[in-house]
Amino acid sequence: MFGxxxxxxxxxxxxxxxxxxxxxxxxxxxxxxxxxxxxxxxxKIRPDVIVHIPFDRGRVERRDQGNFVAMxxxxxxxxxxxxxxxxxxxxxREALGYPLTIFINIDSDETHVAQxxxxxxxxxxxxxxxxxxxxxxxxxxxxxxxxxxxx
Length: 151
Known about the structure:
The chain is of the alpha/beta class. The protein has one domain. It is built from three helices and seven strands, in the order E-H-E-H-E-E-H-E-E-E. It has a seven-stranded mixed β-sheet with strand order 1-7-6-5-4-3-2, with helices on both faces. The relative contact order is 0.17.
């Protein structure tokens, strides 16, 4: 785990524009997740933010295709809350095949990387973000190397 200081923000209207540089196939979008349902997705949980190709566009054949990133965000998360969010991310990976998962702890120095389960360690980045004297401070725990979580 290491600290990274930055003085640039990425405004909401820039996220979609910059997504094209990721070179993801199928013109994916970034959105707050609101559409996961038990009958269609076999899940009762929803990540906070996703990057995906909506199934209803007809560009993917199955609901577990076209999913790129699932994110959980918490405000000053404690270890138990982080563990719950990592569990959600793990279930999202299992059910819908998200290859990258991200945990973001806002207004904190704690990434909670120690709570990250081994099953998703190689695909989960953990961030802690806070302001110090009006400037953003970002702590990052990158995905663990050498483990694909069985996938």
